[in-house]
Amino acid sequence: MAVATTRTGRSRISERVAAVSPSATLAIDAKAKAMAQAGEDVVGFGVGEPDFPTPARIVEAAVAACRDPRNHHYSPTPGLPELRQAIADKTKRDSGYEVGANQVLVTNGGKHAVAEAFETLLDPGDEVLVPAPYWTTYPEAIRLAGGVPVEVATDESTGFLPTPAQLEEKASAATKVLLFVSPSNPTGAVADLQLISEIGRLASERGWWVVTDEIYEHLVYDGRRHHSMPVVVPELAERTVVLNGVAKTYAMTGWRVGWMIAPVDVIAAASNLQSHVTSNVNNVAQQAALAALSGDLSDVAMMREAFDRRRKSIVALLNEIPGVSCIEPHGAFYAYPSFAGVLGRQIRGRRPTTSLELADLVLSEAKVAFVPAEAFGHSGYGRFSYALSDADLERGVKAMGALLAEAEE
């Protein structure tokens, strides 16, 4: 982006911040919402958040917390002690990873946990292995921390998962961190136990840190299971940061409560950082998160059943469109179809050659919004969130399909 300068010739905006790319997922959603506000009937597959309301028991806990004067004041920067303990307990219950409350830092949402993890671990020039396609925020957070994201390209042949050989090929003497995400946003890929073991052992042998984002841990299908890397490779625990939050599991994206789990010295350093940036996370939201984690997983089971149904439906509908193919995702709530058979063909006077150009065409002509693969360090694909109603899902894919059926050589 162009940066204006002052009369002294110095830029008004720092080069570091000016270099940040806007979130493509939010940009697509904003354009779709603007069209909707203008009266156009738009189906949005863009932003990844559950379409369910936060469970009532969690909302009621927040209402009660609002009335409690203890929540009207500053609280400890790392999080309410009872919430930190609940996160430790939940982590042991759900993944078998046993940690202490002093290894937990409560953050202002999952993105804040991502940013603080890299800010705490990286010095300028440190390299981070980032399997692609990746969630759009990861490389930006790495760069803001002074690090260098090193993309490790994956494709359908490995189910969009990196192999140990690919990681070794991209590693260098400057490699400090491996980013590992399963289930994946944007592809829905889920790593099996063997691959996690192989990658974890490689990281341990090379002395790399691992930052693993487990935000979609409960959204897995087809009998698959989520496995936490420090459980599979215990010797890696002293160099592992686990990121998570309540957003996806409990339909609490707007509450902004995430966390990082790491060795005590890392948590102490990150807490010190947070004390100067945000202080404590909103106390009412923390109390809501405490209620979420203290209950059972029946709410997510209901949502997962709906997501599973929609997952099967969207994959089938996408594969019916000539020129479009979609492998079945096993986790999260995203489908990631290839448009290889459509790109380069003429559609209503335009000839899109990239998924970015195709996304713009589909939004303009079919009133359907999806996120192009360029947002994820990839090309030729698109991310479709199926966290929307069954009716809208079918209507949106069919509308896009009707448009793409017009493609000509």
Q: Short description, anyone?
A:
With about 400 residues, this protein is an alpha/beta fold. Helices cover about 40% and strands about 10% of the residues.
Low-pLDDT stretches are: none
Briefly note the structural class of the backbone: alpha/beta
Report strand order across the widest sheet.
2-8-7-6-5-3-4
Number of domains: 2
Looking at this protein, list some descriptive labels.
single chain; 409 residues; alpha/beta; Aspartate Aminotransferase, domain 1; Aspartate Aminotransferase, domain 2; three-stranded antiparallel sheet; 14 helices; 12 strands
Molecular structure report:
- With 409 residues, the protein is α/β, with parallel strands linked by helices.
- The chain has 2 domains: 136 residues, Aspartate Aminotransferase, domain 1; 239 residues, Type I PLP-dependent aspartate aminotransferase-like (Major domain) (Aspartate Aminotransferase, domain 2, 3-Layer(aba) Sandwich), CATH 3.40.640.
- It is built from 14 helices and 12 strands.
- The protein starts with 14 loop residues before the first helix and ends in a 5-residue tail after the last helix.
SSE layout:
Layout: H1 15-18, H2 24-37, E1 43-44, H3 56-67, H4 81-95, E2 104-107, H5 110-121, E3 127-132, H6 137-144, E4 148-153, H7 164-170, E5 175-181, H8 193-206, E6 209-213, H9 229-232, E7 240-245, E8 258-261, H10 264-277, H11 283-294, H12 298-319, E9 334-335, H13 355-366, E10 368-369, E11 371-372, E12 382-385, H14 390-404
Parallel strand pairs: 1-10, 3-4, 3-5, 5-6, 6-7
Antiparallel strand pairs: 2-8, 7-8, 9-12, 11-12
